[in-house]
Structures are given as C-alpha cells and as structure tokens.
Design brief:
single chain, about 375 residues, alpha/beta, UDP N-Acetylglucosamine Acyltransferase, domain 1, nine-stranded mixed β-sheet, globular
C-alpha cells in the first residue's frame, strides 16, 4: 500500500533547534520523529512512501534515501512554495507509483493507533475519505468533528480566537464531556486527491473536507484508541519523550535496556549514576563518566561526553554535546555540538547548535 507523509513545516515553535534540522528529523530518544512514523506505516502494510517536503528537504532525503535501509520504497515531492496540507498531498500524488487508495500522515504525530483497523473500516464503508479521530476533553482549542451514527462527518466546528485565548489563559476549566478531533491520519481515494486544485495553497481542513461535507461526498470519521500526541513544540516534545520512556506508547524503543529505567545505544558507556526513579536513554558512542548523576528524565545523544561530577536533571542533549566536570543542567535542551565548560549552572534553557558556554557561567539560575 502507498502512503504520503507531510513533512514540509518550518518548525518555528522549535527554534533555535530547527535552524539546523527540519522538525520531522528532531530526535526523540535518539531516533528521528519520522522514523517512528515510517515504522508504524510499514507495520500496517504501507511499504511505498512519498515524503511531501519543503523546509530543509535535502536533509530528509539524505537521511532516508531510497528507503531500503528501512524496508520500504521512498520518493520525495519537494514544494517550490508552501502549498498547505491539501496542496502538499496533491503535489506528492504525482510521485505515487499507482492510482489507488492512499494513506496520509501529518509529519508531527506520534501515535500507536491501529492503522490497519482504520483502513479496513474505510473500505468496509465504501468511503471516499476517512479521518482518524482522537477523543479529547471538552472544551478544547481544536477543531471538533460531529458524526452521524453511521460515521459520516456532519460538521466541522472550529473554536473562535476568543475561545482559544480563554482556554490558553485557563486550561484547567471544568470538563463538560469529550470531543473528536482530527488526528492527522487520513485514508483517501484517488478521486479525492484529483479534486484538489494544483499549484496553489490549499488546506484540506478548511477547503476540501468542508466541501465534501456540504456535498455529502462520503467523508467519514474513524475514532481510534491509543496514544496520540501532536508534537507542536517543546512542551509536547518533552511529553512524548517521557511517555515513551515510561512505556505509555506501544512501540519498541531504540537501544538495549541495561537496567531499570536505562536504555543504551551501540557503543554507549554509562559509568555514572541514574538516581532513584530516573529514566535515561543514552545514544550511540556517548560517554557518561563515573561520578556524573542523571536525575529525572535525561536523554543523551550520540557522541556526547558527560564529565565526572556533573548533574543532569530533566534534560535532552542532542548529538556531540560536551558537559564539563561539576556542571549542573536542569530542564535544558541542547542542540548538537554544544560545549558547556566545567562548573556551569544552567536551568530552563534551550541552547542553540555550536554554542560554547564558558566555565562557571550562570544561565537561568539564581546567583
């Protein structure tokens, strides 16, 4: 079966981390986000995938190449200009191998949904398009879908800007029930894709699906059970990191479990201490010296070097980060090739690639 992954976003909410890589290649437990999606699609019979790319498209193509390393075939459809969700699908469809039913995945999603069940339901209903749905507490800031008893989508309600602002200001309002929202996984028939205008910005949520609802063109919803997070920014990124390490997502973790709460990739050397209740994932070739302490949730990327006496608490370090002796990092995300000298104290910070923090520096901490 064929699939399209929409992976062209600019990842502005992840800056400065997305100045050096596209968001879909952001590593989660030392594995790029897109690899989780590719593995899930492959597990459900999707073995031919077209990436719809734009921002830093070359990096995605370089990483996946022809797909043979991942057991699938891959092609790439780069946009000359942003085309929106539907426009990206229409552009990618020109690179498909055949005209047939296609699944589409938004490149921001981490999930363990039973995709085969959604595809089977689509075929059983004779649908032209099916949207995977996730139940979330009401009220919420998402677009909400209303369904007929047979699963047809009757309406798509978007919250007003005032409602979104009110929820952002007070996210702990009393729950009034549950709503179904678009989960970013679609099953589409070829005629739906052909109906998308070419060469311009088109939103599938704001233009194509509303038209199908108005004209009763066979748009269905498929409520799905399981884990689902839209990795929109650092908050969701941190949530997914924790959830994966805590076994809340039904996917195999990369690396080998060496002790309770500890996973290591090939060549990793863990001589430090994982404090009680901690969770850590250590990347390929990384070295954690004796006397270093890891607390809470800590992810250490490939080639990192953590010197003795340092303390990392609730941190994510990407590739080739050096943390000097006696440094203390709390709630820090470091991009690649960062050097943190001995004795530094850093808290609540995102550090850009190739940065150098000199000895005894204080960032985000009290004096």
């Amino acid at each position: 079966m064929q699939g399209i992954i929409i992976a062209g976003g600019f990842g502005t909410r992840f800056r400065p981390l997305t100045y050096t890589r596209p968001k879909p290649l952001m590593p989660i437990l030392n594995r790029p986000l897109l690899e989780y999606q590719v593995a899930l699609l492959k597990a459900h019979g999707v073995d031919e995938i077209v990436f719809a790319t734009n921002y830093m498209a070359d990096a995605i193509e370089k990483h996946f190449a022809d797909g043979s390393r991942f057991g699938v075939k891959m092609r790439y459809a780069q946009e000359d200009q942003p085309l929106g969700t539907a426009g990206a699908i229409r552009n990618a469809a020109n690179s498909l191998w055949r005209q047939e039913t296609v699944v589409v995945f938004n490149g921001d999603i981490v999930t363990d949904f039973d995709l085969s069940a959604i595809i089977d339901l689509h075929r059983k209903r004779g649908a032209r398009a099916t949207i995977a749905l996730k139940a979330v507490p009401s009220p919420n800031p998402y677009g909400v879908l209303e369904l007929h008893s047979d699963g047809r989508v009757l309406a798509w309600r978007e919250p007003t800007d005032e409602q979104k602002k009110a929820l952002a200001a007070n996210p702990n309002v009393e729950q009034t029930g549950w709503d179904y929202i678009n989960a970013g996984f679609y099953v589409l028939e070829p005629e739906v894709i052909r109906s998308i205008p070419e060469g311009r910005m088109v939103s599938i949520e704001r233009e194509i699906y509303p038209r199908m609802i108005d004209n009763q063109e066979g748009l269905y919803g498929a409520p799905a059970e399981g884990y689902w997070v839209d990795v929109a920014g650092p908050t969701q990124y941190w949530q997914v990191t924790n959830d994966l390490l805590r076994g809340r997502v039904r996917v195999p973790l990369p690396g080998t479990p060496l002790a309770e709460g500890l996973w290591c990739m090939k060549g990793a050397q863990m001589h430090g201490t994982l404090d009680s209740g901690g969770l850590s994932h250590i990347g390929e070739g990384a070295l954690v010296e004796q006397g270093a302490h890891l607390r809470g949730t800590v992810v250490i990327g490939a080639g990192c070097h953590i010197e003795q006496g340092s303390v990392l608490e609730d941190c994510v370090l990407l590739e080739q980060v050096h943390v000097g002796a006696g440094a203390c990092l709390t709630r820090v995300i470091c991009d690649r090739n960062v050097f943190i000298a001995s004795g530094c104290r850093i808290a609540d910070a995102v550090i850009a690639a190739n940065s150098r923090i000199e000895g005894e520096s204080r960032l985000g901490t009290s004096w």
